[in-house]
């Protein structure tokens, strides 16, 4: 079919509009990346840098020479790795149990999960719970109260509902216990779902900010996002400068840009390896047959 002139004009305008929108969205990321790798002398001279005349790693060398920055990276890595592993173990096993129709109390547990989606206790009860559990001032305060997300549990249950029950029944006939069936059969065929929800959990733990402000009482326990927020709000990075080695500090703006890139890079680096599983896992529960 031949396209009319109006249709071609609309497509042209659509491409131009979306292209401009993409440039507007991409430019801040580009600017942050470029400034973080710019030579400090050029940044002090030009102020606005669109492309570095000389590439430099001075901002990154300075950041990674500081105890405060390395410690915050370690805290965030602990939250992302350990928190994701614990959340996946609890959420997936709970969702699998809810998918077993013969489990005693299944309807009651499903109702309790649904209630967590409809009603939230708020900040104060959550704070009191963490305090009564003795988790104040511990990184576990950011992990244990958030092990299972009700929405993720229901989505994973939908995935496990699609797995033929004959697999579990065959394993039981062969003498496998419920735990052995779960570890040897269900988990291996659930990798797409695990990868998708693992990415969700990892991003959430890596970006922990508000709860860290509430429950962590020492700057030594700060994750990278809290340290980054303090860097962005302060004119001079006193926490970073106090723990720096024998490096001359680059301009403060360059340090902020380098910290933003460092805080964003791990998630961007992990996503391509999980993209195949993520595309499959994102379709969980969307098709019923």
TrEMBL record:
Location of this chain's protein in the cell: Cell membrane
Family to which the UniProt record says this protein belongs: Belongs to the binding-protein-dependent transport system permease family.
Matches recorded under PROSITE patterns: ABC_TM1
Main location: membrane
Record's protein name: Putative aldouronate transport system permease protein
Biological-process GO terms, alphabetical: transmembrane transport
CDD domains cross-referenced by the UniProt entry: TM_PBP2
Transmembrane segment boundaries: 12-34, 77-97, 109-127, 139-160, 181-206, 254-274
Superkingdom, natural source: Bacteria
Membrane topology: Multi-pass membrane protein
Keywords (A to Z) from UniProt: Cell membrane, Membrane, Transmembrane, Transmembrane helix, Transport
Any one annotated GO CC term: plasma membrane
Domain ABC transmembrane type-1: 73-274
Signal peptide positions on this chain: none
Xref: InterPro entries: MetI-like (IPR000515), MetI-like_sf (IPR035906)
């Amino acid at each position: 079919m031949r396209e009319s002139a109006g249709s071609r004009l609309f497509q042209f305008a659509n491409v131009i509009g979306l292209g401009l929108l993409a440039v507007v969205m991409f430019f801040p990321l580009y600017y942050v990346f470029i400034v973080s790798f710019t030579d400090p002398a050029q940044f002090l001279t030009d102020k606005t840098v669109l492309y570095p005349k000389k590439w430099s790693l001075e901002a990154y060398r300075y950041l990674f020479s500081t105890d405060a920055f390395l410690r915050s990276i370690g805290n965030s890595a602990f939250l992302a790795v350990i928190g994701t592993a614990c959340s996946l173990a609890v959420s997936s096993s709970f969702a699998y149990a809810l998918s077993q129709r013969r489990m005693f109390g299944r309807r009651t547990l499903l109702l309790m999960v649904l209630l967590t989606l409809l009603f939230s206790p708020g900040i104060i009860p959550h704070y009191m719970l963490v305090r009564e559990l003795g988790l104040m001032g511990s990184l576990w305060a950011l992990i244990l109260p958030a092990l299972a997300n009700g929405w993720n549990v229901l989505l994973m249950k939908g995935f496990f509902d699609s797995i033929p029950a004959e697999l579990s029944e065959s394993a039981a006939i062969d003498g496998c216990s419920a735990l052995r069936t779960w570890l040897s059969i269900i988990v291996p065929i659930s990798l797409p779902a695990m990868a998708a929800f693992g990415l969700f959990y990892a991003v959430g733990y890596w970006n922990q900010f508000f709860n860290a402000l509430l429950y962590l009482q020492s700057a030594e326990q700060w994750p990278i996002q809290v340290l980054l927020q303090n860097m962005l709000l302060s004119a001079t990075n006193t926490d970073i400068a106090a723990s720096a080695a024998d490096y001359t500090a680059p301009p403060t703006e360059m340090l902020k840009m380098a910290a933003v890139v460092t805080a964003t890079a791990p998630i961007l680096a992990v996503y391509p390896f999980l993209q195949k599983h993520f595309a499959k896992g994102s379709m969980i529960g969307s098709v019923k047959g």
